[in-house]
Write a structure and sequence with these properties.
- Helix content is 40%, strand content 17%.
- A hairpin with an 8-residue loop joins strand 6 and strand 7.
- The strands form nine sheets. Strands 19, 20, 21, 22, 25 and 28 form a six-stranded antiparallel sheet that branches.
- It contains 20 helices and 28 strands.
- It is of the alpha+beta class.
């Protein structure tokens, strides 16, 4: 039986438009990977859909004075259409409000419930708003964060410091409905016994085995994914509530006297949306959905952002195995976050640009879809946070798409038309070094895609084009033509370059799918389809031509008009308008009358000699694991990669940073500090931090891209 690929992308909340960070995080990388699999002729299904339940939806609805249904309908259709316009090629985009999803989630719940050991019932004290006569979901409660003092932390998380919270931890809690202090009231909920799955989850994540049998290559998983998972496992897994008292969601499928007014917690039903989306796709296409979810030949891949790692690597796999028969993910290539011009995306400030907003404001910009896709993949936050900048957008477009790829394709088509009336000339090229090198580069490109290294794969696409440009420049057929138009070197050069353009027209499809058919039309070749890449590689391996001798190509056309063009500034004007908006935001303070704060500084310490400083061995490091130290409110246990080795460091920063927020963080380490035991743990160094006037800590961090172990002088 042939392998089946089931690819998922995180279900976006249908309570707002999606920005470029979302696109770079979970949707563009998945689209690249799925398009690649299709080019190989693989049996692949890619599902996603709108996450339409939970408190976030109801809060948005209350703010706008409409029903939750109006909110989800508006943003489901907006996001679905925007994805389509950007070439995000889901096989099915479902929604969790659909009856099939409700049924699938309720059936899943009952299967686990009837096992008798996967759930436990608990009576708990939960906040209740007496004015509105309802229990409050975590997001309906705000208060002062006990970690950083932020006055408007939510009941589940502080968005200022990133700490995971429970409503009972908040200082001076208040209801977002009435604005008053809520009261505690007893209620019953069901909890998923996640804790009893810890042993096999650790084996599965660390070793890549299940019950001692190979399952996946654990070494192929990203370090920050494994690090975050192990941090959770080391901290001890706890049962998780899977029901909530809420009037918007999937009703708990138990008798009314047991479950009246209770719905499935959104974290529980949302990942089941992958299953219901596959079911709907299968119904619409006459397929058997179970063959894509069950069996040894299933390759399940989750594409997400780093904020969803725990749910897709620990919680959902535990749910799948508890249910039985479902395949577990072979990889979860989670991306980190994309910032915007040096800061986080902020809808309230207008900092950033949403996907639909980009399409509208760039509506007259040629190749706007591929220009955006290319800029994002070339700066994709695969292993560390990245930063989208308009200047880099221009540079990636002009230097790579226009000057490199576009210029090469145009020169080949123009010269073939000029010298041979658009017919591929006759020449012997099977041993041509440039063509062989281009084929080898294409093979490396696909190997990078197999490893989910999309940024590097895109670089190899440019390398193929650069190789063609270099070869053409070295031969310079236009120079030879002046003196000897019948010289066979001209024919060989152009026939080779036509093959390289044809190769580019296939390899480019995952990255810039709007440009690929234009290149194919220039070559007068059929559009790429399932299996085209495999057929292309087979042809080259057998010494066959992709553009045969005598083949009539199309007329020349510019693929990418440069943005920086003194003769036509219309494209640059679009970019400059975006920059001007940002300058206006930066010049406008968030608060017109911000409070002043007197800053006092500690006096400098006693003078030392250079030799004293030189004794310090300061090294760059990367935090790969972080967890709280038991019974120590201020201590975190960190594992720091110094390049040449990994060190355990105990640091008193727990009041300022959530452990999971530190995974992947670059730091500076005092590497030759004598080891010291703290709470029974040997600390093998110290990380450097700085304290502001309010007492808040910030880590001293090397620039992005620096590796562990570099000497700080």
């Amino acid at each position: 039986m042939s392998k089946k690929y089931l690819v998922t992308s995180a279900l976006p909340y249908a309570n707002g438009a999606l920005h470029l960070g979302h696109l770079a995080g979970a949707y563009l990388p998945a689209d690249i990977y799925v398009r690649y699999l299709r080019l190989l002729g693989k049996d692949v299904v890619w599902v996603c859909g709108s996450d339409e339940h939970g408190a976030a939806i109801t809060i948005r609805a209350k703010k706008e004075g409409v029903s939750p249904r109006e909110i989800i309908d508006k943003y489901h259709h907006l996001n679905k259409e925007t994805f389509e316009k950007l070439g995000i090629s889901f096989d099915y985009y479902h929604r969790t409000s659909a009856p099939l999803h409700h049924q699938t989630s309720q059936d899943f719940f009952l299967t686990l419930y009837n096992k008798g050991h996967e759930f436990e019932e608990r009576s708990i004290e939960q906040y209740y708003d007496e004015d509105f006569e309802q229990f409050l979901a975590d997001r309906y409660i705000v208060g002062t964060c006990p970690r950083c003092g932020h006055p408007n932390a939510y009941g589940d998380q502080c968005e200022n410091c990133g700490a995971d919270l429970s409503p009972l931890e908040l200082i001076n809690p208040r209801s977002t409905l009435s604005g008053k202090a809520p009261v505690l009231k007893s209620t019953k909920h069901w909890y998923f016994r996640l804790d009893q799955h810890a042993p096999w989850l650790r084996e599965w994540i660390e070793q890549g085995t299940l019950d001692g049998q190979p399952h996946h290559d654990a070494k192929a998983w990203k370090k920050h994914v494994v690090g975050q998972c192990l941090s959770w496992l080391d901290g001890g897994l706890q049962p998780r509530a899977i029901t909530r008292d809420l009037d918007w969601g999937i009703p708990v499928p138990l008798p009314a006297d047991e479950a009246k007014g209770k719905v499935l917690y959104v974290w529980f039903d949302a990942p089941i949306g992958y299953i219901s989306s596959t079911k709907q796709w299968a119904l619409d296409n006459g397929k058997d959905w179970e063959t894509y979810w069950k069996g040894e030949d299933v390759e399940l891949i989750h594409f997400i952002g780093k904020d969803n790692i725990v749910f897709h690597c620990i919680v959902f796999p535990a749910m799948l195995r508890a249910h039985g028969a479902f395949a577990l993910p072979r990889n979860v290539p989670a991306n980190q976050f994309l910032n915007f011009e040096g800061e986080k995306f902020s809808k309230s400030r207008g900092w950033g640009i949403e996907q639909d907003q980009y399409l509208e404001e760039f509506k007259d910009f040629p190749n706007k879809e591929d220009a955006l896709r290319w800029a994002l993949v070339r700066n994709m936050p695969e292993n560390k946070d990245a930063d989208f900048k308009w200047d880099e957008f221009v540079e990636f477009h002009d230097k790579e798409l226009a000057d490199n790829l576009g210029n090469f394709v145009n020169r080949v088509v123009v010269l073939t038309q000029k010298y041979y009336n658009g017919q591929a000339p006759e020449a012997s090229i099977t041993t041509n070094a440039a063509l062989i090198a281009a084929y080898q580069q294409a093979q490396i490109l696909t190997a990078e895609l197999e490893q989910f290294s999309f940024k590097q794969a895109a670089q190899f696409l440019m390398d193929i084009s650069s190789l063609g440009n270099t070869y053409m420049q070295e031969v310079s057929p236009w120079q030879i033509w002046k003196d000897d138009p019948d010289n066979p070197a001209i024919k060989e050069c152009l026939l080779v370059c036509l093959q390289i353009v044809a190769l580019l027209s296939v390899c480019s499809e995952p990255f810039i799918p709007f440009t690929t058919p234009r290149i194919r039309r220039l070559l007068n070749l059929p559009e790429v389809q399932a299996g085209t890449l495999q057929a292309t590689f087979d042809a080259l391996a057998q010494g066959n031509l992709l553009v045969p001798v005598g083949h009539q190509i199309g007329e020349p056309a510019i693929l990418f008009a440069k943005i920086n063009d003194r003769r036509d500034t219309t494209r640059l004007d679009v970019i400059n308008r975006q920059k001007e908006k940002l300058r206006h935001i930066m010049a406008t303070p968030d608060d017109p009358t911000p409070p002043t704060m007197a800053v006092s500084y500690e006096p400098a310490k006693a003078e030392i000699q250079y030799d004293d400083f030189a004794r310090l061995d300061l090294r760059t490091g990367i935090i790969v694991e972080a967890e709280k130290v038991l019974k120590a409110d201020k201590l975190l246990k960190l594992k720091v990669d110094l390049g040449f080795e990994q060190r355990t460091i105990v640091s008193g920063i727990a009041e300022h940073f959530a452990p999971e927020a530190l995974i992947g963080q670059r730091v500076v380490v005092v590497a030759n500090l004598a080891p010291r035991k703290l709470r029974g743990i040997e600390s093998q160094g110290m990380i450097l931090s700085a304290e502001d006037a309010t007492g808040k800590l910030g880590l001293v961090a090397p620039p992005d891209g620096w590796q562990g172990g570099w000497i700080v002088k």
